[in-house]
Amino acid sequence: MSEKKKFNLEYEIKSSPRILYSFLNEANGLTQWFADDVSVRDQVYTFTWDDETQRAKLITIKENKLVRFKWLDDEPQCYLEMEILQDELTNDVALAITDFATDENIADRKLIWDNQIDYLISTLGA
């Protein structure tokens, strides 16, 4: 099995950081765009997609700024980070994604993220 590599994506989102943040760290918000179902217990999030479940621990949180999840069944160095970036001059908001995938899966993962973020933007009405 080949080693997973970190990759970064950035998407412009027309939303306030406060509203966007609720879609990144609250089970209800994540269910609206990221997974079919999300539940949280003791900082462990259970994500369900088409009857497949993955669990992740919330390891870093900065209000209205950043969430980082560590997948419980993944390699130790791998995590999923979603960071809200706001330009100080223009107040434009972007969502930066840091994820991990093997070389042969990075292109597919990027397409999945593109679709997920499109869905998030439509959910936000942005």
Automatic annotation (TrEMBL):
InterPro entries according to UniProt: START-like_dom_sf, START_2
The START-like domain, residue ranges: 1-126
Pfam families, A to Z: START_2
SUPFAM superfamilies in alphabetical order: Bet v1-like
Name of the protein: START-like domain-containing protein
UniProt organism field: Mucilaginibacter conchicola
